[in-house]
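ok so i was messing around last nite and threw this chain in just to see what happens. nothing serious, just curious
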Amino acid sequence: MTIHCQNCLRPYPETGTPYRCEVCGGVYDYSEFPGYVPPVETGSPGIWRYRQSFGLPEYAPVISLGEGNTPLLPVRLNGQQVWLKCEYQNPSGSFKDRGAATLLSFLASRGVSTAIEDSSGNAGAAFAAYAARAGIQGKVYIPDSTSGPKRQQIESYGAEVVRILGNRSTVAEKTREVAANGEVYASHAYLPQVLPGYATVAYEIYEQLGEIPGSLIVPVGQGNLLLALWRGFESLSKVLQIPKAPLLVGVQALACAPLWALTNYGPAGLGWVAEAETVAEGVRIKTPIRGDSVLQAVEKSQGVFIAIDEERILPARDELARQGFYVEPTSSLVWEATRNLVKNLPQPVVSVLTGSGLKTEI
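result:
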């Protein structure tokens, strides 16, 4: 496993499960991302067909609820064909299941029996579900404003829910304080073991589409899905010797759009970025942990960030629903972005619908 601290370059330890470097506090990431390995049909469930692309030890258990193999469906928009990758059809209702599967497999391989996580909802639900599957007792810290269905879902899996007054950043800070006292912090934001799981979205899109897409539109909070997709398609293009990678469009809610502000207005733009209320709670992240890497991926792809006005988010969700796609507001960001950009994007265009509408009360 080629994971190192991005700051001091120390390798990830052979024992334990630190979420960041214990020497300098830096963020861990892959110095060499586990490359795409064509799947061998062995009857493995869902994403585990790609197990050799995960970088997990051979003895790591398969922790699965059947995640992956989500549909890629065509729709017409402004006279153009667009493909929708329906990640909301994963077992707990979001793409986070893919990363939870690989992360919980890693934690189980290290003998973890209890762990904590923080989330605005989807990551907490995925963590709770896969922790239950792995026999790991979970505790999830969430903002008090988290939608009722997401909170109830987390509790139903048997995880303890701790509601924190304050915004998403306050919840993350509280969770780090708890982790400092020795708790295993199964952070979907910090721990890079989620990324190979997310990268399977790229592998499936390639198999379903029969080619690497021209453009890929993804909602961005932490940005780990976008980053993993870029790495997955880069790996695919190298292994298959296809000189092509998609143009990336990262979509944020204007109420909290740090990466959009930075790319459009430079460092000065960050000065007015707020962690304001938005119905797209899944992207309400003011300081993405791997923000630099996400920015670099979009730049390399010659892509863009776009921010969506709050008043357009729910109408976009309703438009998708009228075509049979019932998604949460975070996912509807990509539909609005696709409408605005589709005529000028390289074809084929794939938009990723990340979370289920059953998780919201709006």
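not much to say yet. The mean pLDDT is 95.
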